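User: Hi! I'm working on a homework problem where we have to compare a predicted structure to a textbook description. Could you give me the structure for the chain below?
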Amino acid sequence: MKIVICGAAGRMGQAIIKLAKLDEEVKILGVFESDGSMAIGTGDPIIYSVRDLKNFLSETDSVIDFTNPSSTLENLEFVKEFKVSLVIGTTGFNEKQKNKIVETSRSVPIVFSPNMSAGVNILFKLVETVVEKIPDYDIEIVELHHNKKKDSPSGTAAKLAEIAATSLGKNVKDIGVYGRYSSNTLRKKDEIGLFSIRAGDIVGDHTVYFAGPGERIELTHRAHSRNTFASGALRAAKWVVNQEPGLYDMIDVLNIKNI
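Assistant: Happy to help. Predicted structure tokens:
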């Protein structure tokens, strides 16, 4: 199948390109960066300006997008016009931007996930199960990433909090607490705490704590390499090209809804 990759100069873009070049089932038609990027005209394959993206989409099966929210929204218009399937690994969207993705998915199939690794998506399902079994336990989430990461909390941590809140019958907007710095930080019963650490070259660690009387459960995922996310993105691209228009996630791709 034929793919294009947006965000080609980024850490994830480079990892996806490297694996795609080794994948006999995939052909890279083009890789792209934001107009004005110093990376344009460099690399193997050569990186194009995103303004040239439309010239490639008539032959493309799927677009993989690891950019930023504003760039992804621009690319949504292109995939909608050319009816090309899309994999979105970009994080940091606000609600209005997420609604735009939902709207576009009515016309083209989209996989939208804050984390493409199999392990993290199994973690999503485990968190849902544990919350349902012990809803009275305190829930806290700690995530660690490299010191160049822009958004906080990570998209994965935000998704973990959303899953936990939904399993409690709550809205994460009402019970999420992002760090604690105050003269009065007494924990409320239904809070879900989220904490971010940015240091060194950490690829990505996430731990969800469930603490109750006399015990705690810790569910941890540690990414050793970005290849786990890159291989997941390629897997999603191969899967979504055969789907009807709609909004999907990696739980759908991995077929693990019922574990």
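For your comparison, note the following. The longest helix spans residues 118-133. The first strand starts at residue 2 and ends at 6. Good luck with the assignment!
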